[in-house]
Design brief:
7-stranded mixed barrel; single chain; 283 residues; mainly beta; 7-stranded antiparallel sheet
Length: 283
C-alpha cells in the first residue's frame, strides 16, 4: 500500500540523502550524501533495506512528521528520544508506526546529524544516480513544512528475530585517523609535529561543505596549483586556519592539502558540535 509522509515541522536543514553521487567530479558535481555514513548504514540494515536506500537527514533540530499509512521506521545518528503520538521510543532499532502516526523527537544533546529511515526507502527522484538533495543539482537543498514524501508499505514486513549490537560510542570519539595529504611533506618538521600533536577545537564556521578549526597552524607552505579535493581533505589556508572538507565540498581547491581523513572518521567529525575537541592520528 502506498503512503505519504508529511513534513509538519521542518526542523533544521532537513533533507533527503543517500550515499551521494560517485563519478561526476569531472563535471564539477560534488559527491554530497549523508554526513554520517555509519548511522545511515545502520538505519537501512535495521529495516532490511538495500544499502543505498534514501533516508531523511536533519541537523541539530529534528523535524515533526506525519505518516498516513502504517510502516516500520528506524531512527539513528544524533542522540534523540523518538516520540510516537506522545509515547517515547528507542533509537537504533525497528519501530512500528500505526496509520496516521505523528513522529516527533526530544533532542538530548549529543551529535549533530540525525536520520529517519523508512522500510523500503522513500519514493524520490534520482538525479545523476542519487537522491541526495544539493542545489543546484536538485531543485531544492532542504525540505519544508508541508512537503510530502511517498513510500510503499510492504505487505509482509521484515520480521526481527535478533538484535543488531550497536553503540553510539563513536559520538564520543575525539581521535580522527588521517593519511598524509599531497602537500604534507612541504611542512617543516616542527609543523608536522604541531599538526599531529595539537588538540584542535571545532569552530562555529561549518556547513555541509566544510568545517573550520579554531586554532591556527603557525606554519605555512608554498602556494600550489589548483588540484583535486575530496570529502575529508584537510586544507591549510594562508592565514594558518585548517578547513576540513565535508560531503558537499567542491571538487578542486587551491589550498595545500596537508591531511586526508580516513572516510570512516569523516562520520565521527560530522557529529562533532561546535566547541568539541579533536586530534589527528596519522595512519
Amino acid at each position: 500500500m502506498r503512503g505519504e509522509m508529511r513534513i509538519l515541522k521542518s526542523g533544521m536543514a532537513t533533507s533527503i540523502q543517500d550515499f551521494g553521487r560517485v563519478g561526476f567530479a569531472k563535471y564539477g558535481i560534488p559527491r554530497s550524501g549523508v554526513m554520517d555514513q555509519k548511522a545511515f548504514v545502520l538505519a537501512n540494515a535495521l529495516l532490511g533495506n538495500t544499502a543505498n536506500s534514501s533516508v531523511l537527514e536533519w541537523t541539530m533540530i529534528p523535524p515533526k512528521l506525519h505518516f498516513d499509512v502504517s510502516v516500520n521506521i528506524a531512527c539513528t545518528g544524533a542522540k534523540v528520544i523518538p516520540i510516537i503520538d506522545g509515547i517515547e521510543q528507542k533509537m537504533n532499532r525497528q519501530i512500528k508506526l500505526p496509520a496516521n502516526a505523528i513522529l516527533s523527537f526530544k533532542f538530548v544533546g549529543k551529535g549533530v546529524f540525525g536520520y529517519v529511515a523508512i522500510e523500503g526507502g522513500f519514493d524520490v527522484e534520482k538525479v545523476f544516480d542519487s537522491a541526495s538533495m544539493f542545489a543546484p543539482v536538485t531543485k531544492n537543498s532542504t525540505l519544508r513544512a508541508g512537503d510530502l514524501l511517498g513510500y510503499t508499505n510492504r505487505e509482509e514486513s521484515l520480521k526481527q528475530h535478533a538484535h543488531i549490537r550497536w553503540g553510539n560510542s563513536y559520538l564520543d570519539c575525539s581521535v580522527l585517523r588521517v593519511f598524509p595529504g599531497p602537500e604534507f611533506e612541504l611542512l617543516p618538521e616542527d609543523g608536522k609535529r604541531f599538526l599531529l600533536e595539537k588538540e584542535f577545537v571545532v569552530s562555529g564556521i561549518r556547513s555541509r561543505m566544510g568545517i573550520q578549526l579554531m586554532e591556527p597552524l603557525p606554519y605555512s607552505v608554498s602556494e600550489i596549483l589548483t588540484g583535486p579535493v575530496l570529502p575529508g581533505t584537510v586544507q591549510l589556508t594562508p592565514s594558518g586556519r585548517l578547513i576540513i572538507l565535508m560531503r558537499d565540498c567542491q571538487t578542486t581547491g587551491g589550498y595545500p592539502r596537508v591531511l586526508q581523513l580516513d572516510d570512516l572518521f569523516l562520520s565521527v567529525l560530522a557529529q562533532k558540535q561546535t566547541g568539541e575537541k579533536i586530534d589527528f592520528r596519522l595512519i
